[in-house]
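Why do we care about 3D structure at all? Because function follows from shape, and shape follows, mostly, from sequence. That is the central idea of this module. The next example makes it concrete: a single protein chain, its amino acid sequence, and then its structure expressed as tokens.
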Amino acid sequence: MSRTTATIPDDLTDLMEGAVKAGIFENKSDAIRTVLREYFDENENARIAAAVSLYAEEQITLGTAARLAGVNRFEMRDILREEGIELRLGPEDMAAARDEIDAARDLE
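And the structure:
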């Protein structure tokens, strides 16, 4: 799991701390993870746009893009083509091959 640093306005920090004290979340990290998951669960277009952007910048594979977007590989290929993004077929190295296998398992 990666670590990210963020600047959050005081009122949101206060609400987050209050929610942790009220037992709504285990801790601040749990609060942020929950809010982000809910956002992307409720905003399919944002989830797809994020996956497309990462794929276009060659940061993720097709399988990972599909998993992040919440679609299958064939749908992801169609989405990328519609966005004018050139497909990169086949893993570039062993790490990418493992990533593709893991992403395919997650889709089952």
